[in-house]
Design goal:
single chain, about 180 residues, alpha/beta, Glutaredoxin, five-stranded mixed β-sheet, two-stranded antiparallel sheet, 5 helices, disulfide oxidoreductase activity, cytochrome c-type biogenesis, Cytochrome c biogenesis protein CcmG/thiol:disulfide interchange protein DsbE
Length: about 180
């Protein structure tokens, strides 16, 4: 009898592991909450992409709701996302870009080719601001309220559906509070 019970132990372990693995298949690997939600946007002091002599800091994100988009010329999905960002800008959403791990020339050429929806672009060639934001890669987008607090984080490409279902409702929510 004990011998039969011992034979069932590997089967029970397998069944438990199978349940956990099955649950894992339903998870979205790119969906993750930022550890910075409900916290102030990280402090930084960097030049702008447009003017190497102009320095900006986190204070540029106070006063109004702002969508901060981390992008790079090297990022293929950033190119796919640009029409949605241009639409958001046309609809009155304030956008600030973070040109992440790029060169100034390549970043400027990217914006000339695909359009520039950004009020301003922070130039982050070393990725220091991206690191402080916990960015895994580009694109990533953060919604910052008028007090400079991160309220929403979108990992990856913003689809046309995301604009209507998520981004615009989040912007409206934080504008009205």
């Amino acid at each position: 009898m004990k011998r039969r019970l011992l034979l069932l132990i590997p089967l029970a372990i397998f069944a438990i592991l199978a349940v956990f693995l099955y649950q894992g298949l339903s998870l979205n690997p790119s969906a993750r909450d930022s550890a910075l939600l409900a916290r102030e946007f990280p402090a930084f002091q960097l030049s702008t992409l447009e003017d190497p002599d102009a320095t900006v800091d986190e204070s540029l994100l106070t006063g109004q709701v702002t969508l901060v988009n981390v992008w790079g010329e090297w990022c293929p999905t950033c190119k796919q996302e640009m029409p949605q960002l241009l639409e958001l800008a046309e609809r009155g959403v304030r956008l600030v870009g973070v040109d992440y791990k790029d060169t100034r020339a390549k970043g400027q050429a990217f914006l000339e080719e695909f359009g520039n929806p950004f009020e301003l672009n922070v130039f982050d060639p070393e990725g220091s601001l991206g690191f402080d934001l916990g960015v895994y890669g580009a694109p990533e987008t953060f919604l910052v309220d008028a007090e400079g607090i991160i309220r929403y984080h979108h990992t990856g490409y913003i689809t046309p559906e995301d604009v209507e279902r998520t981004i615009l409702p989040e912007v409206k929510k934080w504008r009205s509070e």
